[in-house]
Write a structure and sequence with these properties.
Blueprint: H1 2-16, H2 21-35, H3 40-60, H4 63-83, H5 88-98
Helix pairs in contact: 1-4, 1-5, 2-3, 2-5, 3-4
Length: 136
């Protein structure tokens, strides 16, 4: 169960920082409405706060803050499953719905796909982030 919960928390936090944000809200809201309808709105508001935090963390390169958010949501999801073990399949569906696409032509979730073909004496330099090139 711990591996499932960790994967779900990581997937949820990652989705909060991507175009999959609305899907993440709907999926998480659905889980909480079925298990604890009286808490669903509060949990969704807290997910909104987490979204703001993860976006700031990524903007600032703060990996620790993002890991901490995953830890917070892992605890929440573990408690949810402990109280509602019948929700395991729904949590797996959440992971499948929000997880990275497997389409090989699409970039990975939250990233870019770089492809280069070189021949002869050509030189290729690619970077997914900052790069400095000094020609010698």
């Amino acid at each position: 169960m711990e591996e499932l919960v960790h994967l779900a928390a990581s997937t949820l936090v990652s989705a909060a920082a991507t175009a999959g944000w609305e899907r993440a809200q709907r999926a998480l809201g659905g889980l909480w409405r079925r298990a604890h309808p009286e808490r669903a709105d509060r949990v969704l508001a807290e997910l909104g706060e987490a979204r703001a935090e993860v976006l700031a963390a990524r903007r600032n390169g703060d990996e620790r803050a993002e890991r901490e958010l995953v830890g917070e949501w892992r605890t929440r999801l573990r408690r949810l499953l402990t109280a509602n073990p019948d929700m395991v399949l729904e949590l797996r569906r959440l992971i499948d719905e929000l997880g990275p696409r497997t389409d090989t032509d699409a970039p990975p979730a939250g990233g870019v796909r770089l492809t280069a073909h070189a021949s002869g004496r050509s030189r290729v330099t690619m970077a997914g982030r900052d790069i400095n090139i000094t020609k010698r």
